[in-house]
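// run 5 | inverse folding | seed 20
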Protein backbone atom coordinates (compact mmCIF):
# COMPACT_ATOMS: atom_id res chain seq x y z
CA UNK A 1 0.00 0.00 0.00
CA UNK A 2 1.39 3.38 -1.01
CA UNK A 3 0.77 6.57 0.93
CA UNK A 4 2.09 10.12 0.76
CA UNK A 5 3.09 12.25 3.73
CA UNK A 6 2.34 15.83 2.70
CA UNK A 7 2.97 19.28 4.12
CA UNK A 8 2.73 22.84 2.79
CA UNK A 9 3.93 26.27 3.85
CA UNK A 10 1.97 29.37 2.88
CA UNK A 11 2.02 33.18 2.84
CA UNK A 12 -0.57 33.22 5.61
CA UNK A 13 -3.44 31.34 7.21
CA UNK A 14 -6.55 32.20 5.25
CA UNK A 15 -7.37 31.34 1.65
CA UNK A 16 -10.22 33.87 1.85
CA UNK A 17 -7.63 36.60 2.40
CA UNK A 18 -5.81 35.53 -0.75
CA UNK A 19 -2.95 33.63 0.84
CA UNK A 20 -1.04 31.19 -1.34
CA UNK A 21 1.32 28.22 -1.08
CA UNK A 22 5.09 28.84 -1.00
CA UNK A 23 6.33 25.28 -0.44
CA UNK A 24 5.09 21.71 -0.98
CA UNK A 25 6.80 18.64 0.45
CA UNK A 26 5.83 15.01 -0.07
CA UNK A 27 7.41 11.74 1.02
CA UNK A 28 6.12 8.44 -0.35
CA UNK A 29 5.56 5.47 1.96
CA UNK A 30 5.16 1.87 0.90
CA UNK A 31 3.77 -0.37 3.63
CA UNK A 32 4.65 2.40 6.11
CA UNK A 33 8.31 2.48 5.02
CA UNK A 34 9.63 5.61 3.27
CA UNK A 35 10.70 4.98 -0.30
CA UNK A 36 13.26 7.13 -2.10
CA UNK A 37 10.50 9.01 -3.91
CA UNK A 38 10.16 12.62 -2.77
CA UNK A 39 8.35 15.60 -4.25
CA UNK A 40 9.52 19.03 -3.14
CA UNK A 41 9.33 22.56 -4.50
CA UNK A 42 9.35 26.20 -3.47
CA UNK A 43 6.77 28.37 -5.19
CA UNK A 44 6.38 31.98 -6.18
CA UNK A 45 3.04 32.87 -4.52
CA UNK A 46 2.60 36.00 -6.62
CA UNK A 47 1.95 38.02 -3.47
CA UNK A 48 3.79 39.10 -0.32
CA UNK A 49 4.48 36.77 2.58
CA UNK A 50 2.78 37.92 5.79
CA UNK A 51 4.96 38.80 8.78
CA UNK A 52 3.42 36.02 10.86
CA UNK A 53 4.13 33.40 8.17
CA UNK A 54 7.69 34.67 7.71
CA UNK A 55 8.34 34.03 11.41
CA UNK A 56 7.11 30.44 10.95
CA UNK A 57 9.02 29.34 7.84
CA UNK A 58 11.49 32.13 7.07
CA UNK A 59 10.88 32.30 3.30
CA UNK A 60 11.23 35.91 2.16
CA UNK A 61 9.64 37.57 -0.87
CA UNK A 62 13.11 37.88 -2.43
CA UNK A 63 13.85 34.17 -1.96
CA UNK A 64 10.53 33.15 -3.54
CA UNK A 65 10.53 35.68 -6.38
CA UNK A 66 12.42 33.49 -8.89
CA UNK A 67 10.69 30.21 -8.02
CA UNK A 68 8.18 28.40 -10.24
CA UNK A 69 4.48 29.13 -9.95
CA UNK A 70 1.97 26.49 -8.89
CA UNK A 71 0.67 26.11 -12.43
CA UNK A 72 4.17 25.07 -13.53
CA UNK A 73 4.40 22.14 -11.12
CA UNK A 74 0.73 21.16 -10.80
CA UNK A 75 0.79 18.19 -13.19
CA UNK A 76 3.94 16.70 -11.62
CA UNK A 77 2.45 17.14 -8.16
CA UNK A 78 -0.86 15.51 -9.10
CA UNK A 79 0.98 12.63 -10.75
CA UNK A 80 3.02 12.07 -7.58
CA UNK A 81 -0.02 11.80 -5.30
CA UNK A 82 -2.29 9.96 -7.75
CA UNK A 83 -3.88 6.79 -6.36
CA UNK A 84 -2.28 7.16 -2.92
CA UNK A 85 -3.66 7.95 0.51
CA UNK A 86 -2.49 11.38 1.61
CA UNK A 87 -1.35 11.75 5.22
CA UNK A 88 -1.47 15.31 6.59
CA UNK A 89 -1.30 16.88 10.04
CA UNK A 90 -4.21 19.33 10.18
CA UNK A 91 -5.47 18.35 6.75
CA UNK A 92 -8.15 21.04 6.59
CA UNK A 93 -5.46 23.72 6.31
CA UNK A 94 -3.27 22.06 3.65
CA UNK A 95 -6.11 20.67 1.53
CA UNK A 96 -7.88 24.03 1.68
CA UNK A 97 -4.81 25.77 0.26
CA UNK A 98 -4.05 23.04 -2.30
CA UNK A 99 -7.61 22.99 -3.59
CA UNK A 100 -7.56 26.76 -3.83
CA UNK A 101 -4.44 26.57 -6.01
CA UNK A 102 -6.06 23.86 -8.16
CA UNK A 103 -9.22 25.92 -8.51
CA UNK A 104 -7.22 28.93 -9.72
CA UNK A 105 -5.86 26.87 -12.64
CA UNK A 106 -9.13 25.01 -13.36
CA UNK A 107 -8.00 21.63 -11.98
CA UNK A 108 -10.12 19.16 -10.04
CA UNK A 109 -9.84 19.44 -6.25
CA UNK A 110 -8.30 16.74 -4.07
CA UNK A 111 -11.01 14.57 -2.52
CA UNK A 112 -11.07 14.66 1.27
CA UNK A 113 -12.06 10.98 1.20
CA UNK A 114 -8.50 10.21 0.11
CA UNK A 115 -6.95 12.09 3.04
CA UNK A 116 -5.95 10.87 6.51
CA UNK A 117 -5.67 13.62 9.12
CA UNK A 118 -3.17 12.69 11.84
CA UNK A 119 -4.39 15.62 13.93
CA UNK A 120 -7.82 13.96 14.18
CA UNK A 121 -6.24 10.59 14.98
CA UNK A 122 -4.20 12.18 17.77
CA UNK A 123 -7.20 14.12 19.09
CA UNK A 124 -9.23 10.92 19.39
CA UNK A 125 -6.38 8.89 20.81
CA UNK A 126 -5.07 11.43 23.34
CA UNK A 127 -8.03 13.59 24.41
CA UNK A 128 -6.96 16.57 26.47
CA UNK A 129 -3.28 16.19 25.59
CA UNK A 130 -1.04 18.20 23.27
CA UNK A 131 -1.49 17.09 19.66
CA UNK A 132 0.74 19.49 17.74
CA UNK A 133 3.52 17.90 15.69
CA UNK A 134 6.09 18.97 18.29
CA UNK A 135 3.97 17.57 21.13
CA UNK A 136 3.60 14.23 19.35
CA UNK A 137 7.33 14.09 18.62
CA UNK A 138 7.93 14.54 22.34
CA UNK A 139 5.35 11.86 23.22
CA UNK A 140 6.93 9.33 20.86
CA UNK A 141 10.52 10.41 21.61
CA UNK A 142 11.20 11.50 18.04
CA UNK A 143 14.12 13.89 17.63
CA UNK A 144 12.78 17.17 16.24
CA UNK A 145 15.84 19.29 16.98
CA UNK A 146 16.20 20.14 13.26
CA UNK A 147 12.80 21.84 13.30
CA UNK A 148 14.08 25.34 13.98
CA UNK A 149 11.61 26.60 11.34
CA UNK A 150 8.51 24.96 9.85
CA UNK A 151 9.78 23.61 6.54
CA UNK A 152 7.74 21.17 4.48
CA UNK A 153 10.25 18.33 4.04
CA UNK A 154 11.46 18.30 7.63
CA UNK A 155 7.85 18.31 8.82
CA UNK A 156 7.10 15.43 6.43
CA UNK A 157 10.01 13.41 7.81
CA UNK A 158 8.80 13.96 11.37
CA UNK A 159 5.18 13.24 10.50
CA UNK A 160 6.12 9.97 8.80
CA UNK A 161 7.54 8.77 12.15
CA UNK A 162 4.64 10.19 14.16
CA UNK A 163 2.12 8.55 11.82
CA UNK A 164 3.63 5.08 12.26
CA UNK A 165 3.50 5.49 16.04
CA UNK A 166 -0.05 6.81 15.97
CA UNK A 167 -1.47 3.86 14.08
CA UNK A 168 0.67 1.11 15.63
CA UNK A 169 1.47 2.02 19.23
CA UNK A 170 -0.82 0.80 21.96
CA UNK A 171 -1.09 3.01 25.00
CA UNK A 172 -0.08 1.26 28.26
CA UNK A 173 -2.82 0.51 30.76
CA UNK A 174 -1.62 1.53 34.21
CA UNK A 175 -3.47 -0.94 36.42
CA UNK A 176 -0.59 -2.69 38.14
CA UNK A 177 -0.99 -1.06 41.55
CA UNK A 178 -4.72 -1.73 41.66
CA UNK A 179 -4.20 -5.32 40.59
CA UNK A 180 -1.64 -5.87 43.37
CA UNK A 181 -4.28 -5.13 46.01
CA UNK A 182 -6.12 -8.31 45.06
CA UNK A 183 -3.10 -10.60 45.47
CA UNK A 184 -0.94 -11.78 48.30
CA UNK A 185 2.86 -11.81 47.99
CA UNK A 186 2.87 -15.55 47.34
CA UNK A 187 0.24 -15.17 44.60
CA UNK A 188 2.36 -12.56 42.84
CA UNK A 189 5.42 -14.80 42.94
CA UNK A 190 3.38 -17.70 41.54
CA UNK A 191 1.98 -15.52 38.74
CA UNK A 192 5.43 -14.21 37.91
CA UNK A 193 6.81 -17.72 37.62
CA UNK A 194 4.26 -18.51 34.91
CA UNK A 195 6.01 -16.25 32.42
CA UNK A 196 9.25 -18.26 32.60
CA UNK A 197 9.59 -20.27 29.39
CA UNK A 198 11.35 -23.60 29.76
CA UNK A 199 13.13 -25.02 26.70
CA UNK A 200 12.00 -28.29 25.19
CA UNK A 201 14.35 -31.29 25.21
CA UNK A 202 15.04 -30.74 21.51
CA UNK A 203 15.91 -27.09 22.12
CA UNK A 204 18.14 -28.05 25.03
CA UNK A 205 20.10 -30.53 22.85
CA UNK A 206 20.52 -27.97 20.04
CA UNK A 207 21.70 -25.36 22.52
CA UNK A 208 24.29 -27.75 24.02
CA UNK A 209 25.63 -28.59 20.55
CA UNK A 210 25.92 -24.88 19.73
CA UNK A 211 27.82 -24.16 22.99
CA UNK A 212 30.18 -27.12 22.42
CA UNK A 213 30.86 -25.96 18.86
CA UNK A 214 31.58 -22.36 19.92
CA UNK A 215 33.79 -23.53 22.79
CA UNK A 216 35.93 -25.70 20.50
CA UNK A 217 36.17 -22.92 17.90
CA UNK A 218 37.37 -20.34 20.42
CA UNK A 219 39.58 -22.39 22.71
CA UNK A 220 41.11 -25.15 20.55
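// decoded
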Amino acid sequence: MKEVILDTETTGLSVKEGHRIVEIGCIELKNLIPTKKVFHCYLNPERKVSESALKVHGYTDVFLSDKKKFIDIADNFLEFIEGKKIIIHNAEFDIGHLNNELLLINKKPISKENVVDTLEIARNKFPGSGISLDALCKRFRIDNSRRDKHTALIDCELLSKVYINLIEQKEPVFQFKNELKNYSKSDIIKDYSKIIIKPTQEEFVKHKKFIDKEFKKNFY
